[in-house]
Automatic annotation (TrEMBL):
PANTHER family from the UniProt entry: CENTROMERE/KINETOCHORE PROTEIN ZW10 (PTHR12205), CENTROMERE_KINETOCHORE PROTEIN ZW10 HOMOLOG (PTHR12205:SF0)
UniProt GO BP: endoplasmic reticulum to Golgi vesicle-mediated transport; mitotic spindle assembly checkpoint signaling
UniProt region (Disordered), positions on chain: 461-636
Organism the protein comes from: Lentinus tigrinus ALCF2SS1-6
Lineage: Eukaryota, Fungi, Dikarya, Basidiomycota, Agaricomycotina
Bias (Acidic residues) ranges: 498-515, 537-565
Protein's name in the database: ZW10 C-terminal helical domain-containing protein
Gene Ontology CC: one annotated term: RZZ complex
Gene3D superfamilies per UniProt: 1.10.357.150
Comp. bias (Low complexity): 523-532
Length: 946
């Protein structure tokens, strides 16, 4: 759409002609302004314009007159030629298109007559060809019908093929006719009848079943059939019987390729199933007979019957297979068509080899060494059958002699089968569920150092933060037969399962040393005594005391079993007397004027640096201490034992390992197999250990995850199997020595696995304790009763959890490992509480009292580290933070003077300076006394004179 121009813009002048201008003027003139004068002016203007135009034309012609005349003459000449051409075209059109004399009508009439004649000729030729082809088809159909009625199947097959080809080559008009369709139906019926007769003749010529194999070289034809109402039906007239005999090769040759391939495939399957595999699976009796019928036709029959029950000779199966294949090679294979006479027997080679291997050799591979010689004889006969039957009789080229290859490696196959059976047995042992009824306890030797108890034990000074160890005098200090109220029903049920002397503290039995043992896993630090250099070396090389070649020396005082698990304390060093400091009055007031723990009357407890088994009894005041000490006699090595629980399946597993090694050695010494026998069987021993390591954590995953005892018992199982493997490996000689490397590798892996499960179980309990203490939320805001209840519940939950776990571990672990494990989880709980409380920036008086009460809840755990109620506990040797935690509960309610006094006495050496400073700032307000105390603390722990 054009853009409209504004009316106020100037317009361009029109360059139009005079007529347009005049017409514009007329259109713009209104009826009021129109008059005769205006109209006459318009006419005059037009006349003037016409005259001017004519004048310009004449002037233009006059200016170029010769050229104008030439063009005019040319135009006249063109017009004349156009008229002449038009007359000629009209004449030609008349001569071509005239209805009577025109060229085109005459040509069309001639062509139509020629086309009709050609069509008539083509119809006659097609009719002749169709009739001739139909006559040929009729003759061949009659010929085929006669052959079918005479049961001449070979000729009938060829005639049927010729007739089918003739029908397919029929001309197109004939192919669509009804007569040809009827001929196709008859041809199909005759062909089907021929194939039916061939199939019937084939089925009566070759019979392969589970009970017999029948081959008839000649077979009598069946009765012919008559066509009744357009269909073929069996003839019921006796005169229709014919006496025609068909050869088996002709029957096979007369079949179509597709039918022959199908029948041969079925025959191959029947021979494989009923002749090859059947003879290999079970004992049978074979009878071969040749008979001649009334018609003079002979047949060859091979009858197969099951042998009576009894002892069977497996070599008879090979003989039966040879008989069957010889029968087929003589009476069946020669009748096959030439193309199949070679390929069909070759197709039976693979089934024969497979049946011999899978049905005879592999299932009857012996599982004991005594039956191996007879089987080797059978295997050699199988290899000989492969040469005689498969290669020579069936024509195999021998490139794939799988039976001979298998027989050459029969020793390897025997060992692999035995290894599979052994591993199946090992798997059954390993995946068996835990059974407490089969659990037994293993006694292990341990060398500890016994130090005679000084008469004045309390006079021994503190040396480098360490205290002397008291000696427990109770022979049954472990107390499996006793039940404490804190352990509940769970401990009671476990104590019923254990014997009176579960830890093996038998005074009359000494551990039997094992000759030349290899290094064993180093026990935990709590069970390794600190002694002189020579003693440390011996305990590190053999911490279980298996390398002791001499009888242990009896101690000079008391029984050797007074305290077999106490470790040797560090040698006492003389301490110069120190002035008696002034007691802290604040602590005396709190304890009613009595002697106050952590005061001069109760010197500070030991630092957890020394692994002792009991906290020291309170010594007398410093003023009454003696500087002269009774000399301590040299330490005496005392043989001791401890026990731990092991699952019963470990015995079965170790017995299986020993049986495997013994079987491998017997196989090598028997000399039945050549090469290097026994190596594969011996591999089953370390493989059984691998199954133990791999399957137990998987099959018992739920129990190991939910129970606290089962992971520790599995750790004990690994440790026990590792120790027993050491004994087994040390006794390996001769052929068994080849398995020593793998057994030692398995032994090391089991030791690592035992330590891993031991540590992981402890770590899991530590995580559970940490999750319980998460509910305390850092012990903040304990002034609120609700928050205090939450903190108290968390601490009580930790206490109950440790009390539940302790009896379960105590029932399965050795004494040393039990205290190490228990000490670890108690240490985790105390460290978490210490860290949370020391992290508080402000502790009010109410909070300090309540935090102290919460800390006192866990004091009940000290009873778990006591074997004799009359003796002090040895919690400090296994829980490094115990003294620090005990002092924390006192410091929370102590005054600045008490804290300063304890610091000067060296009782707070377990605390870092930063921790003490932060605790003082949190407990007390900012006063000059607090500032002086902090300054004193920042100078470091006091150094006691040596």
């Amino acid at each position: 759409m054009a853009f409209p121009l504004p009316t106020h813009l100037p317009r361009k002048k029109d360059a139009r002609d005079v007529s347009t201008q005049i017409l514009t003027k007329i259109s713009e003139t209104s009826s009021k302004t129109l008059n005769a004068q205006l109209a006459s002016s318009w006419v005059a203007e037009l006349d003037d314009t016409i005259k001017a135009t004519k004048t310009r034309i004449h002037e233009r012609i006059a200016g170029d007159l010769p050229n104008f005349e030439r063009q005019l003459a040319t135009s006249v000449s063109v017009q004349e030629r156009l008229q002449s051409l038009s007359r000629n075209v009209d004449t030609l059109s008349e001569s071509i298109s005239h209805p009577q004399s025109g060229l085109i009508p005459n040509l069309v009439t001639t062509l139509a007559s020629h086309a009709a004649l050609a069509q008539e000729n083509a119809d006659v030729r097609a009719q002749h060809a169709a009739l001739a082809h139909l006559l040929r088809c009729r003759n061949e159909l009659r010929h085929l019908t006669g052959l079918v009625q005479k049961a001449e199947l070979a000729d009938a097959t060829r005639a049927s093929s010729s007739l089918g080809k003739c029908i397919d080559d029929a001309p197109e008009p004939l192919a669509k006719s009804e007569v040809m369709a009827d001929m196709k139906r008859k041809s199909t019926a005759l062909r089907n009848r021929t194939e039916e007769q061939l199939l019937d003749a084939y089925s009566r010529s070759i019979v392969v079943s589970q009970s017999e194999v029948v081959v008839k070289p000649y077979v009598q034809a069946v009765l012919p059939r008559r066509q009744i109402n357009g269909s073929w039906a069996p003839s019921m007239l006796p005169q229709d019987n014919i006496d025609t005999t068909i050869r088996l090769p002709d029957v096979l040759a007369s079949m179509t390729p597709a039918a022959l391939s199908m029948h041969l495939a079925t025959l191959r399957r029947d021979i494989t199933t009923h002749c090859i595999e059947y003879t290999m699976k079970q004992p049978i009796q074979i009878y071969q007979t040749d008979t001649t019928g009334l018609t003079g036709t002979s047949q060859y029959k091979l009858s197969m019957q099951r042998a009576p029950p009894g002892v069977e000779d497996l070599s008879l199966r090979l003989a039966n297979l040879t008989t069957v294949m010889a029968f087929l090679h003589s009476h069946l294979f020669p009748h096959l068509p030439p193309a199949e006479r070679t390929s069909f027997p070759l197709s039976l080679c693979a089934p024969i080899r497979s049946a011999i291997l899978n049905q005879l050799l592999l299932p009857n591979l012996p599982s004991t060494l005594s039956k191996l010689p007879d089987f080797l004889s059978l295997a050699k006969q199988a290899a000989q059958l492969e040469d005689e039957v498969v290669i020579q009789m069936l024509g195999d080229n021998g490139a794939d002699r799988s039976i001979k290859s298998w027989v050459d490696n029969v020793g390897l196959h025997y060992e692999r089968k035995r290894r599979a059976a052994i591993l199946d047995r090992a798997r059954a042992i390993v995946v068996s569920p835990p059974d407490d009824s089969t659990t037994f306890r293993v006694e292990v030797p341990l060398i500890v150092e016994n130090v005679p108890i000084p008469v004045n034990l309390v006079d021994k000074p503190v040396t480098n933060g360490k205290h002397p160890e008291p000696v427990a005098a109770d022979d049954d200090a472990w107390g499996f037969g006793d039940e404490s109220p804190s352990q509940g029903n769970e401990t009671s049920s476990q104590s019923d399962e254990t014997s009176t002397d579960e830890w093996g503290f038998d005074d009359d039995i000494d551990p039997e040393p094992t000759p030349e043992p290899e290094p064993v896993p180093e026990p935990s630090k709590a069970s390794v005594p600190e002694s002189s250099t020579g003693t440390e070396d011996s305990t590190e090389d053999d911490p279980w005391g298996w390398n002791d070649d001499t009888e242990p020396t009896e101690p000079d005082d008391g029984s050797a079993w007074d305290d077999a698990w106490d470790e040797k304390p560090s040698a006492p060093e003389p301490v110069p007397p120190s002035p008696a400091p002034k007691p802290a009055k604040g602590l005396e007031k709190r304890f009613g004027g009595k002697s106050v723990p952590n005061s001069p009357a109760f010197p500070p407890p030991q630092s957890p640096a020394a692994p002792v088994h009991s906290s020291p009894p309170p010594p007398p005041p410093v003023a009454s201490r003696k500087t002269k000490h009774t000399p301590v006699p040299p330490p005496l090595l005392i043989p001791a034992t401890e026990t731990y629980a092991v699952s019963g399946r470990t015995k079965d597993l170790l017995q299986l390992v020993e049986d495997v090694l013994r079987e491998g050695a017997e196989l090598v010494s028997s000399g039945i197999l050549g090469g290097t026998p026994g190596s594969v069987i011996m591999q089953a021993a370390p493989m059984a250990l691998e199954l133990f390591r791999a399957l137990v954590p998987v099959t018992n995953a739920t129990v190991l995850k939910q129970s606290a005892k089962e992971p520790m018992r599995f750790s004990n199982d690994c440790l026990f199997v590792s120790h027993e493997l050491r004994r087994i490996a040390m006794g390996l000689t001769g052929p068994k020595a080849s398995a020593r490397g793998k057994l030692e590798e398995g032994m090391e892996r089991l030791r690592v696995l035992a330590d891993s499960w031991f540590e992981e179980t402890i770590a899991r309990e530590e995580r559970l304790i940490d999750e319980l203490l998460d509910h305390a939320k850092g012990f903040i805001d304990t002034t609120h009763q609700e928050r205090y209840d939450e903190c108290e519940g968390a601490v009580n939950g930790v206490l109950q959890r440790i009390r539940r776990v302790a009896p379960q571990w105590k029932a399965v672990l050795t004494k040393s490992r039990y205290y190490d494990a228990l000490g670890s989880i108690v240490e985790a709980a105390l460290s978490r509480i210490l860290g949370d409380i020391l992290a508080l920036e402000d502790i009010t008086e109410v909070e300090s009292h309540r935090l102290s009460e919460l800390c006192h809840i866990l004091n009940a755990l000290e009873g778990l580290f006591m074997e004799d109620p009359e003796q002090p506990s040895f919690v400090v040797s296994h829980v490094p933070s115990w003294l620090k935690f005990s002092y924390l509960s006192e410091l929370l309610e102590a005054s600045i003077a008490d804290i300063s006094y304890l610091f000067e006495e060296g009782a707070l050496v377990d605390f870092e300076i930063e921790e003490l400073v932060k605790l003082v700032k949190a407990l007390f307000a900012d006063t000059p006394l607090r500032a002086n105390t902090i300054t004193k603390l920042q100078q470091g722990h006091p150094v006691r004179g040596s």
